[in-house]
Design a protein that fits this description.
The chain has 278 residues and is α+β, with helices and mostly antiparallel strands. It contains three helices and 16 strands. Strands 3-4-5-6 form a four-stranded antiparallel β-sheet, with helices on both faces. It has a four-stranded antiparallel β-sheet with strand order 7-8-10-11, with helices on both faces. The chain has a four-stranded mixed β-sheet with strand order 13-14-15-16, with helices on one face. A hairpin with a 2-residue loop joins strand 3 and strand 4. Helix 1 crosses helix 3.
Length: 278
């Protein structure tokens, strides 16, 4: 599992009157530097790690789908039933599969995404590559997701992301993500996570209480420097905030209302980072 360590850098107090929110220079701020508790550090690390994975798997599926359709415009006629994404040494492998005549599932096409582009493509003949047990578990998780009907915040179908939790029980995290439907708007609501162990849903959660769409450009097409929002359900930002920073290509200031904290969620040097601001 590809993860990142957080950066232990803290800014000074936050200028709440500004729009968008902007952090003061620590060198000129008289406010004491805030410190994270151990529980907050753990929550931030989990958000960074999982948010990066959600974004990476989602990007692999997106670019893999485009590449597959270039190679196989007759994918439906070939019986393609869905896709899974494998975390491999040099990127993420998107595998499009179909039911096999002998039972189970077999690969129809696979492409490896290295974080920038699809670097390898393979089309498989019938019976050439059967999916192994770990891949079948991903397929079954996708099938299980289709039976869930949480709150939707768009007319379009959910995007799905599934990957191993890394826990000893061999479980999977499976996400239903509200897709972006309009240029200049990004959905922060309508995202859900399920934890699947042994083919059964062990736990599930929502990330907001209601639908929330944030503008990422005004009518003239001008983009803000950052977005800001309140978060009610957790004491720290979540993986959805990290995913959204990448997907919206904007930093996000998150105000966790339960503990009166303000956090900056951003990308630094290509890596995700969460800083405690106030």
């Amino acid at each position: 599992m590809k993860t990142f360590s957080t950066f232990a850098t803290f800014a000074g107090s936050l200028m709440l009157a500004a729009a968008p929110l902007a952090a003061q220079d620590p060198a000129t701020s008289a406010a004491p530097r805030p410190e994270m508790s151990e529980a907050e550090q753990a929550g931030v690390q989990q958000a960074v790690d999982l948010g990066w994975l959600v974004y990476s798997y989602d990007q692999a599926a997106w670019h893999g789908t485009d590449a597959m359709l270039e190679d196989l415009p007759d994918a439906r006629e070939r019986g393609v039933a869905g896709w899974i994404v494998n975390d491999i040494a040099d990127g993420w492998e998107t595998v499009f599969y179909r039911p096999a005549k002998a039972g189970g599932f077999e690969a129809v096409w696979a492409g490896v995404y290295d974080g920038r582009k699809v670097i390898r493509r393979t089309t498989y003949t019938a019976g050439e590559r059967a999916l192994v047990s770990g891949e079948v578990a991903l397929v079954q998780a996708n099938e299980l997701l289709r039976t869930q009907h949480p709150t939707r915040c768009s007319a379009s179908p959910f995007n799905t992301v599934v990957f191993p939790t890394g826990k000893p029980d061999g479980g999977l995290y499976a996400y239903l993500l509200t897709p972006q439907e309009k240029t200049g708007e990004f959905p922060f609501g309508g995202h859900h996570r399920f934890e699947i162990v042994g083919g059964q849903i062990k736990d599930s959660r929502k990330f907001t209480n209601s639908c929330l769409t944030m503008p990422t450009a005004n009518e003239a097409g001008k983009r803000p420097e950052a977005l800001s929002l309140s978060h009610l359900l957790d004491p720290t930002p979540t993986e959805i905030h990290v995913f959204s920073v990448y997907a919206a290509d904007l930093p996000v200031f998150v105000m966790t209302t339960g503990n009166d904290r303000v956090w900056a969620v951003e990308v630094s040097g290509g890596k995700p980072r969460i800083r405690l601001i106030r």
